[in-house]
Amino acid sequence: QDPGTGPGLFGAAWVAVRRARFVARHDLVQVAVVAILWTAVEQLRGRVPFGGFPWGLLAFSQTDAPLIPLASVGGTTVVSAVTAAIGALLAVGATRWNRGAPAGRIATPLAAASVLALTPALLPTPTTAEAGTLVVGAVQGNVPTRGADATSQARAVAANHVTGTRALLREAGVGALDLVVWPESASDIDPRTDDELAEAIDSIARETGAPILLGTQRYADRVRYNDYLVWTPGSRGTDAYTKQRPVPFGEYVPYRDVFRRLSPDVDRVTTDMAAGAATGVLDVPIAALGRPVRVATAICFEVAYGDLIRESVVAGGELIVIPTNNASFGLTQESTQQLAMSRFRAVEHARATVQVSTVGVSAVIAPDGAVLDRTALFTSDQMVADLPLRTTLTLADRLGAWPAGIIDATALTLLATTAFGRLRLRGRA
Fold first, then answer.
1. To 10 degrees, what angle do helices 27-45 and 402-428 make?
2. pLDDT for 150 beyond 70
3. pLDDT in tens, 260-285
4. Which position among 300, 302, 311, 348 bears the catalytic label?
5. Does the annotation mark 302 as catalytic?
6. Among the four 83, 286, 365, 420, which has the fewest Cβ within 10 Å?
7. Cα–Cα distance between 206 and 208 in angstroms, integer?
8. What does the mean pLDDT of the chain come to?
């Protein structure tokens, strides 16, 4: 998507609606209209084309702001709408000041903006354990070289994560860990079908005495799948999640024959990634608790899709793990932006969250969005944390897609009402 598409669509929608009599006469009504239209456009570009691109939603800018507790009320929809409304209120105040309005009329929208901005900080953000705690070790193994070619060195990357896990054991102590998490593409050669890798991972799993979650690629029927496995010694995977939203033009090429006419570079994606269909939950056997713990997961780019994470938590996820591979993005801010999304999801669902990357940034996040530990880019590093397991669903979980649906319906009603009004005026003329 072109970065100007969203603002452009919002501008077009605003121009269409703002001249309607009921909008033009009342600037505070305009505030509500701005919030609704902005959020509706965000949701549209998060769905189309090819599944959309919700990366960069306005809500994700608020992880360090007083608005962040609102995430647990209505997810990105509510936080984006309130953020847009605050901006619109400030614009109304500035406009009134420029026009020489009385002080009271200037103060009203500014006061309303302050209330909207600060009141959410009073909302509770629970962090206590409800179903025990889990000592989780996260391993960032790093890659041999930076850039797109890094993932081709699959055995070296897997070896780095084995080495990193041994370093983790020295830090935490043998027997101290309940679960070890590796990132997406930690072993791009599938250890379920490769005896050498299976033995290496079995060996380190025995040393840790804990299950390992790891990312791999599965090839079948001329396509590939991005899997995240639960690995215990000798099992070759007791459970697996398959990525549901592959990245268009990055992991697969839609309408390849059509786009090849525009550029032969589409064939740099040599094997298309196919989508999984199952909800992102993994049942992980935890010896210390005497039961399986249900882990909610989404792979890399999927953290931007609120519906996927919500479905995983509603399906029983007690902890969120976001495995990711950021090697192709070099020293950009991509992984930091992803961290903001992971923090948002932690608050939205009141779940401790681990973002674990091949190259960073990896982080351990409390259910209130606080970063407990994080790594730097392109380093080998490990983190250990005792994390609370939680089962209570937030209001955002219970409401599901309703806030988004209400925004969409209201935006469509505004546009339809405005269009109908203009047609009536033309008919009278």
1. 120
2. no
3. 999 999 999 999 999 999 999 999 99
4. 300
5. no
6. 420
7. 5
8. 94
The two structure tokens encoding residue 354:
């681990």
Question: In terms of DSSP bridges, do strands 353-357 and 363-365 run parallel, antiparallel, or are they unpaired?
Answer: antiparallel
Percent of the chain with pLDDT over 70: 96
- For residue 357, the cross-strand partners are 324
Neighbours of 353 (CB within 10 A): 28
Topology classification of domain 133-391: Nitrilase/N-carbamoyl-D-aminoacid amidohydrolase (3.60.110)
Spatial contact of 367 and 350, defined as CB atoms under 8 Å apart:
yes
Residue type at 129?
Answer: A
The average pLDDT across 217-235 equals 95
- Residue 425's pLDDT band (cuts 50, 70, 90): low
Torsion angle of the four alpha carbons 149, 230, 322, 356, in this order, in degrees rounded to the nearest 10? -60
Nearest to 214 by CA among 165, 149, 286: 165
3-state secondary structure of 372: strand
Residue 171 is among the residues annotated as catalytic for this protein: no
CA dihedral 143, 145, 150, 154 (to 10 degrees): -50
DSSP conformation letters of 295-314: EEE--GGGGG-HHHHHHHHH
- 130 flagged as catalytic: no
d(CA 367, CA 138) in angstroms, rounded, equals 17
Closest CA to 80 of 110, 56, 103, 48: 56
Can you tell me the distance from the alpha carbon of 199 to that of 23, in angstroms, rounded to the nearest whole number? 67
Categorize the per-residue pLDDT at 5 as very low, low, confident or very high, splitting at 50, 70 and 90: confident
Retrieve residue 192's tokens: 């379920």
Q: How far apart are CA 114 and CA 121, in angstroms?
A: 12
Query: Taking residues 286-306, what's their average pLDDT?
Result: 98
Which residues of the chain form CATH 3.60.110.10? 133-391
Active-site choice (42, 130, 171, 184): 184
From 243, 251, 311, 318, the catalytic residue:
243
